[in-house]
Amino acid sequence: MNTLKNINKKFGQNAIIIIALFVLVLLFYVLNPNFLNKYNIISMAQSFTPYAIMGLGVTFAIATGGIDLSIGTVCIASSVVAGKLYTIGLISLWATIPVMILIGTFFGLINGILIAKFKLPAFIATLGTMMVSRGLSAILAGVPNIFYPTGLWFNKAFSNYNGFPVGLVWVFIFMIFCMYLMYKNKTGRYILAIGSNEEATRLSGVDTDKYKIIAYIISGCFAGIAAIFWSAAFVTVATATGNGMELDAIAGVYIGGTSATGGVASVGGSVTGALMLVVIRSGLNFVLALFNVNVNSTYVTYVLTGVIVVLAVLFDRIKDKIAKKVEISKIK
Fold it and tell me: Does the reported pTM lie above 0.85?
């Protein structure tokens, strides 16, 4: 019965986000029909895929009540290092895939150990690895840009297959996997329990340090996976970048309904939230161009994203307060 209630609750939250997304798409289309042309849809899908994958991974870290600020720079660092090894002929293009995943997983493991074993605040630990990954990748690359090949199986498998945005299929597959891991597997249940009440979870016999580390490993691993899709879509990767990417991914998670304090996670909402941000950014480009408004759409997107995130978290807090009041009234 409780499981059914939780499913209905998650469905209700996701339904609101999906409705809002459809309204946005319709609004931008009415204002400028070119918004839904084939080329813009492919462009949006290419931007959406790595952010959605990063969002799926960081959902596990946020579910523990933590945060992972390193996913953006780790994503780019994974792409840069693997690309450098490929460029100088040390590995094949096939081998860049596991290398990117391993690099992301390594940084996730470091984050998990710093937070779970050394008890560093998640903000500080991941801020440190964010700066380390950014600087280290630039040092190892030794050049301002890394170039991946175009028109090969790599691009077709992870970005654009004969005009079809194949990244959307991958996002769906990863979303289903994360849903299973979060809701049907003990790993996800323990991660959510840690976010709800870490001390009570520890006293019940769960190795909370272990599952915290696993949460951050998942976050880092998915940052490495996101690097694959970023490299396939944007074949020129600038070194020493990635700052800001994590904010878009994390904002999508919050917008999607995952609680900022942990214990509640919406995997599907994380994907929908990422899609909403991509739609807003692209739609604003078309609208501002149509009305000849001389304002950078990126800055307008920052404003709207900030407002939406604050409102989403505020709504989450209000919802929690109402739920607590209802529970207290039932006890009385």
Answer: yes
